[in-house]
């Protein structure tokens, strides 16, 4: 994989000897319902139980509704669907290019407080925080055996993961704000920037086995 040459070194320490379980990027703005909270991490808008065991047909139906509700919230309102409840998921892009493109698109539209959060989860994070659960959208739609509605554009969600309920603060490695007047990532002096110091270390993307929700 290519080095992350587009990003500055990560201020949140990352042990290069650790197994990287997940590497991705989340886009947030003033309208996002899932929010980063300093010292806590990123919280989904809802703590509703997510039936991942799929032990019954009812649980299949609930999970279908939850995932479609979340994807609905990332798109313009479909005319034939009722409003969905707040989502228990947090959208994260699998690659930097998609997150950067989405952040620039939002900033160009004049949306405020646009930022990309770098999410990196290691094996030790999994051991410390317990299972950090995330779902790959295309695989979820496939194993739920649900016909994909026309209003879901797979090009938009083909590299999106849905995290369940929470991403711990330690796994949020860096915040890169985007300014609407210059459409470039930056962040010196930003009030939400991290206090931790740059490590000065370069590292690589995780392998491929690895929003306004």
Shape: globular
Strand order of the largest sheet: 1-5-9
Rounded mean pLDDT is 76
For the sheet with most strands, the description reads: 3 strands, antiparallel
β-sheet strand percentage: 15-25%
Fraction of residues in H or I helices? 10-25%
Q: How far is it from the N-terminal to the C-terminal residue, by CA?
A: 28 Å
Give helix and strand order, one letter per element, not per position: EEEHEHEHEHHEEE
Give unreliable regions as ranges. Answer: 1-10, 187-211
Radius of gyration: 17 Å
Secondary structure class reads: alpha+beta
- The total count of helices amounts to 5
The total strand number stands at 9
Structure description:
This protein is of the alpha+beta class and 213 residues long. It has a domain at 20-46 and 89-178. The chain is 23% helix and 22% strand. It has five helices and nine strands; from the N terminus they run βββαβαβαβααβββ. The chain has helices at residues 57-73, 96-108, 123-129, 137-143, 154-157; strands spanning 20-28, 35-37, 41-43, 89-93, 114-122, 134-136, 160-164, 166-168, 172-178. Strands 1-5-9 form a three-stranded antiparallel β-sheet. A three-stranded antiparallel β-sheet has the order 2-3-8, with no helix packed on it. Strands 4-7-6 form a three-stranded antiparallel β-sheet. The chain is globular, with a radius of gyration of 17 Å. The model is unreliable at 1-10 and 187-211 (pLDDT under 50).
């Amino acid at each position: 994989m290519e080095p992350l040459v587009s990003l500055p070194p990560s201020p949140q320490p990352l042990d290069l000897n650790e197994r990287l379980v997940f590497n991705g990027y989340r886009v947030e703005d003033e309208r996002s319902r899932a929010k980063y909270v300093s010292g806590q991490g990123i919280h989904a808008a809802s703590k509703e139980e997510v039936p991942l065991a799929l032990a019954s047909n009812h649980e299949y139906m609930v999970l279908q509704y939850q995932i479609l509700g979340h994807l609905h919230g990332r798109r313009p309102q479909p005319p034939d669907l009722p409003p969905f409840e707040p989502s228990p998921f947090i959208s994260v892009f699998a690659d930097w290019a998609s997150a950067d493109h989405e952040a620039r698109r939002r900033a160009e539209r004049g949306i405020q407080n646009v930022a990309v959060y770098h999410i990196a989860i290691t094996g030790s994070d999994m051991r410390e925080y317990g299972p950090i659960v995330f779902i790959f959208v295309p695989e979820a739609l496939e194993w739920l055996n649900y016909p994909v509605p026309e209003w879901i554009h797979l090009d938009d969600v083909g590299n999106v993961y849905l995290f369940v309920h929470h991403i711990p603060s330690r796994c949020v490695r860096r915040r890169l704000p985007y300014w609407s007047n210059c459409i470039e990532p930056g962040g010196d002096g930003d009030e939400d920037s991290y206090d931790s110091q740059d490590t000065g270390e370069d590292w690589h993307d995780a392998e491929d086995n690895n929003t306004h929700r």
